[in-house]
Amino acid sequence: MNAKGVLSLLVLSVASTLIATGCNRATSDTHISIYYAHDMTADIRGDAQVELASPKGIRVIIDVAIPAVISKPPTREDILLTTHTDYDHYSYSFASAFPGKQLCKEEGRIDASDVMVSSIPSSHSDEPPSDKPPYTNIIYVIDINGLRVAHFGDTRQLKLTEKQIKELGKVDIAFMNFWGEEERFFIHVKQLKPRVVIPTHLGSGDTNMKAAFGMIMETWPTYMVEEKQVDLSSSALPRKTSFLLVGERTKEYSRTFSIPKWKTR
Ligand SMILES: [Zn+2]
Questions:
Q1: Measured between alpha carbons, how far is 46 from 30 in angstroms, rounded to an integer?
Q2: Digit-coded pLDDT (tens) for 194-234
Q3: 69 alpha carbon to ligand 1 midpoint, in Å?
Q4: Edge-to-edge, what's the strand order for the sheet holding 242-246?
Q5: Which pTM value belongs to this model?
Q6: For the chain, what are the domain ranges?
Q7: Which DSSP state fits 162?
Q8: Model confidence over 44-62: pLDDT tens digits?
Q9: Rounded mean pLDDT of 108-124?
Q10: Separation of 58 CA from ligand 1 center, angstroms?
Q11: Which of 57, 93, 135, 211 has the fewest Cβ atoms nearer than 10 Å?
Q12: Measured in angstroms, how far is the CA atom of residue 134 from the centroid of ligand 1?
């Protein structure tokens, strides 16, 4: 082969590598599964407990307070994340016997197949977040094959800091603690602008929480899935921030509000 032939072969192989990596990522479609089950007899315990499953089958389990409602027993391939150790986000017996990798209210990074977890310290109170450990809450960022999910645990500082916003970047799906705290919650959503917000800590939907929820419905498109499991694909997520209620807790809200069903587009 002459020099020209070698060169064109080189160009061709670089181009195909780009298509296989960078270029492919921009157009690829990532499907993830979300499992959000509740113990309806518990008050707020387990209201932030969710499970994500990546396309390659890596399961990320977050804030397990009620092990009895997880979808299946944990394995060595699973990842457990605990944003903080309050009783409604944590089970000592589950966490200490967990066979896989885990981060418990701590900074760190976990790489596993098509999943990468990173961490951002935040504040559990209206104080700004501390700049050194111990932290009162950790926001976990879970990157799944180009799709970015964030779980806020109980982030209750009044505003997100510039540093947090920068580190969070473009979030596709955010699990954010609602608590009916209209001012703080609305500020966080407007600062972050995720494509989908799945509110946690909906509680039993008392009058105050429902009043705040009514304002969400006036401000953002809101949908619901009553089942415990929903599959989302990155290409079908809405461009503008929308709310998605998932699981049995949704039923309480749908008694008061007419919430359209989420359509997997
Ligand atoms: Zn909580």
A1: 27
A2: 999 999 998 878 888 999 999 999 999 999 999 999 999 99
A3: 17
A4: 110-112, 115-122, 137-144, 147-151, 173-177, 196-200, 242-246, 222-225
A5: 0.89
A6: 31-256
A7: H
A8: 888 999 999 999 999 999 9
A9: 98
A10: 25
A11: 93
A12: 18
